[in-house]
UniProtKB/TrEMBL annotation:
Similarity section: Belongs to the diaminopimelate epimerase family.
Native organism taxonomy: Eukaryota, Viridiplantae, Streptophyta, Embryophyta, Tracheophyta
Name the UniProt record assigns to this protein: diaminopimelate epimerase
One GO term describing the cellular component: chloroplast
Compartment(s) of residence: Plastid, Chloroplast
PROSITE patterns per the UniProt record, alphabetical: DAP_EPIMERASE
EC number of the protein: 5.1.1.7
PANTHER family found in the cross-reference section: DIAMINOPIMELATE EPIMERASE, DIAMINOPIMELATE EPIMERASE, CHLOROPLASTIC
InterPro entries: DAP_epimerase_AS, DAP_epimerase_DapF
Amino acid sequence: MSPAAAAARATSFAANFTTSTAPSSGGRLLRPFRGNPRPRRAVASMAVSAPKSPAAASFLERRESERALHFVKYQGLGNDFIMVDNRDSAVPKVTPEEAAKLCDRNFGIGADGVIFVMPGVNGADYTMRIFNSDGSEPEMCGNGVRCFARFIAEVENLQGTHSFKIHTGAGLIIPEIQDDGKVKVDMGEPILYGPDVPTKLPSTKNEAVVKAELAIDGLAWHVTCVSMGNPHCITFGSKELKVLHVDDLKLSDIGPKFEHHEMFPARTNTEFVEVLSRSHLKMRVWERGAGATLACGTGACAVVVAAVLEGRAERKCVVDLPGGPLEIEWREDNNHVYMTGPAEAVFYGSVVH
Ligand SMILES: N[C@@H](CCC[C@H](N)C(=O)O)C(=O)O
């Protein structure tokens, strides 16, 4: 597509979206919304209520248009995603440029990313792809994969506990919906070898980059680098600031300087962490491609790995994020990291493109 055509297409996105608020789930799986007389596809839950005015009638035409994209907005601890049912195709239904438009909180729907539920490959049940709010494509998303599991249960009309094998850019990820509606995810093994994270910082402990020095804004930050499929740089402070008070940080100033630092060839997510106890951590995150978000699942996992490597915490911790707590465990027996937390639908809508 030419840049001009892409721009025109993206503009029509912003001008033509409609939404409807989801009925409260009360912590349970949402049922299909009943106002839809004739759902276009099997995903009845993406429908909207019946029109009552001429304006609403023209909305109906748009909804039934071939170009309508139906979505469900999900959130996990305030990390929010536009979920797209892409089960019938291995090609995402929106382009990275369109995704960036849709994620815009003023001119679009507003979200930290767009997630596509796609057919599985290599024996996996499904494939997850995600575009960040800047249109870049990360390998993995922890809060996103919990939303992904709940969204699958919704569109497949599954009740109770279920687990799925999800193919992602970070390999096979296994979320399990628990009785209480929370999702526990086997996030696989952390990657600690510097060039694979990737970071150009030299290793300091075996092959890992632990408490290495990184100069930013006149401070010598102590950073540990961990990949959970996607890159993370974790800091508990600097030579000058021994202890961080994360609420005092101006993330929008400092975050981009980590994200775009030359030591991180694929850019990086950055977690700023305060140790409340050996099993209780508090963090704020600046995400690659999305900026300050209310939560980051892969980030919370990476934080616990870094805290263990630096001798600051036990392997099982509660991690407080601005959007709420996650339970994280880095198991010694299999080296896998497990993350448990909530995910829920927020609203349903459609957008014409
Ligand atoms: N919020 C996510 C991470 C999303 C991807 C990240 N921005 C990246 O580019 O790596 C999470 O919950 O893990």
